Amino acid sequence: MPHQSSILIVDDEELIRETLCLDFQNMGYLAEIAASGEEACALLSGKQYDLIITDLVMQGIDGLEVLRQAKSRHADQIVFVLTGYGEMYSAIEALRLEADDYLLKPYHPDELMQRVAKSLADRTLRQKVQFSGSMLSICSECKKVRDREPDENGEERWISIEQFVSKTICSGLSHGICPDCYQRKMDELSEMIRDGRIKPHDDS
User: Fold this and answer.
1) What is the pTM of this model?
2) What is the pLDDT of residues 91-103, one digit of tens each?
3) Range(s) of the domain holding residue 32
4) At which of 103, 131, 159 does a domain end?
5) Whether 151 and 176 share a structural domain
6) pLDDT confidence of 142, banded at 50, 70, 90?
7) Do 99 and 80 meet the contact criterion of CB atoms below 8 Å apart?
């Protein structure tokens, strides 16, 4: 079953948090709400969320402190902040504290959903790449990669790096030639011409 991303919505305005919660649930996310910074920090002490959206200006523990505590517990925690037009200094401070994104109120729902989806997709990609890098097994001779999934007979198999990248991060590779390899090929070609193994093309 595919992983459902979990989102914590922190806002002391009931209409905003309830609306956001409903919107995210309709989009297939697991959404929870916190009516204050204190409530949010209590939830964070026992659970990690894929993404946190917090208002900046709240009574008591504000959004900046929610951001600090979330990042101190998990450095890769995604945190979005919501701020009003008159609170830009706080938004700048949030970015300094490594908030992943911020939106001005009133926010556009479609824009928010797009940014959330992109941030979660980027995080998943980073995690896959990090995991692959820590476990990658490459043949020293042919440079094939050991596949984590056995073949249809349950046996170990080795696949090309192109196949591995496509399977692991759902992305293909474009082929080209780097300057060093290009120069090596040109040197080999020149040597073959000098040795008479091939003749230069005559356009006359």
Assistant:
1) 0.61
2) 777 888 888 888 8
3) 6-131
4) 131
5) yes
6) confident
7) yes
